Amino acid sequence: MPDFFSLSKTIPLFLNPLPLFLLFLMVFSIVVRRSSGSRWILLSAIVFWTISTPWFADQLARWWEEPRKADVELPAHVDVAIVLGGMSNALTSNKEHLEFGSSSERLLEAIHLYKAGRVSALLITSGSGDLMNQEATEAPDLAAFALQWGVSPADLVVESKSRNTRENASLSLPLLKNKGWKSAVLITSAWHMKRAAGVFRKAGYTQNGLKLALWPVDTRESRRAWPLNFFPDEGCLETTQILLREVVGWAVYGNQGYL
Fold first, then answer.
1. What span, in angstroms and rounded, lies between the C-alpha atoms of 170 and 225?
2. pTM for this predicted structure
């Protein structure tokens, strides 16, 4: 008889609304079988089942993401870590309590590198990407968190006007030059690094003696084993959505000449 641990990990798979709904659509389309519409329902359900599985999301992540790097691949010392925002909810956060999202490793890794002596300073760049709340900027609260965790105020620069990746690059470059920094490490999510790296290079971070290292963090891979990786999961559907949206964003940026 299966033990409690095994049951606690498998039974919830059959209680998840997403696979239950998709199974219902499949069964319904097979039972009805009276119109071409039922075949489209079955096909749609199969497609959504597939793109919602950990297996599919992991394949997409391995194809698109920049792989994590070993510590030895980072230069022994870098002047500044450029931390891209998009990791917290600025509407619900404040300087005393930060509401982190799924990309918090961007800031945590930057603080780790600072405390390890690998970078001398942090430049946090993030305004508001919310169309309806342009006043809700993210960077000040992220900076407050970094200060609480031991980053010196003298080693912290905040850019809080940028609304997207392109503005992260263009608005941070003058701050970097004003400080006289010659080397930087760009820290963002692995799924976002392709576009971010292209934008920062285009903006001039590898010109006129400047050096730019890339430090991708926070992969979207789940690496669940068979057969659990073939059960749909809303988190994996979100991963598929994030990655496909990022591919489109990369293509649009390229078309606009931002890469």
1. 42
2. 0.86
Domain ranges, residue 86: 71-217
| Residue 115: both structure tokens together | 């405390």
Whether residues 199 and 75 share a domain: the answer is yes
pLDDT at res. 197: 97
Does 83 lie in the same domain as 13?
no
Do 172 and 243 reside in the same domain of the chain?
no
The order of strands in the sheet holding 183-189 is 156-159, 119-125, 78-84, 183-189, 211-217
Please answer whether residues 123 and 160 qualify as being in contact, where contact means their C-beta atoms are separated by less than 8 angstroms: no
Looking at residue 230, its pLDDT comes to 84
Question: What is residue 212's predicted lDDT score, i.e. its pLDDT?
Answer: 97
Q: Could you say which residues of the chain have pLDDT below 70?
A: 1-22, 24-26, 28-37, 95, 129, 131
Whole-angstrom distance, CA of residue 27 vs CA of residue 16: 17
> Given this model, what pLDDT does residue 88 score?
87
Q: What is the DSSP string of 89-136?
A: -TTT--SS---B-TTTHHHHHHHHHHHTTSEEEEEEE-----TT-TT-
Total tally of structural domains belonging to the chain? 2
> At a CB cut-off of 8 Å and minimum separation 6, what does 20 contact?
14
Name the strand (E) or helix (H) holding 79: strand 78-84
Which amino acid is residue 206, in one-letter code?
T
CATH of the domain at 77: 3.40.50.620
Task: Output the pLDDT for position 225.
Answer: 84
10 Å CB burial of residue 7 (0-12, 13-18, 19+) is: exposed
